[in-house]
């Protein structure tokens, strides 16, 4: 039975929690291997908050362990626990947060005011509160906060499921049939759908405000962190495929997107998060 990895909390918490006053909130990230939990580690690194990690491992069936449902009834990762100090006026001293977008929005709203991870909603000297006067960076931020999970992840998840149909877990005598079905769905739906997403992201990077570099402008934001998991996985798993209307691979047809993902992988916070995972797991997972 999968259980939290022994020593994971203390190993992960060491540097992050050192020197933090007891009257400050503490974050516990419940982390599952090969899941979307990884990007929350990067977010916590950028926020500079006190945090620790409790590691869970997938079962032999590649599922999340059932005992995690005691923490959240759906048993899905990532989940974050916010432990508030005794002096807090909050009626509950522990908050359980689920869903990457909500976790990101809540943590940035309470702990990221000075971190520039969320663009300003209104321009300086603008008409605050008036519809239609928001900055383009903020509008993009709000959109991509939901886009990452609602639009981009579903076809990527389908691609993972299809790869299972072609893999060794399927009995060899029916694998030719399941493999043929998977190839047909890949060619007819997954590849063109992902190519459309990649073309869209390419155009968004080309038109990003203030000179670009990131999706919301020239600065890293929390939505870049949210998108790193699906895009890095796509780069690793789909980079060899012909993608898009041009000739060649993903890198050839979507050069700005490829450069963007490579830039995210080179971010200091991304590397710190990868090192943190390696410290806990013994190998990088980002």
From TrEMBL:
It comes from the Eukaryota. Residues 134-286 form the GST C-terminal domain. Residues 24-115 form the GST N-terminal domain. It holds the Pfam family GST_N. InterPro entries: Glutathione-S-Trfase_C-like, Glutathione-S-Trfase_C_sf, Glutathione_S-Trfase, Glutathione_S-Trfase_N, GST_C, Thioredoxin-like_sf. Belongs to the GST superfamily. This is Glutathione S-transferase. It comes from Podospora didyma.
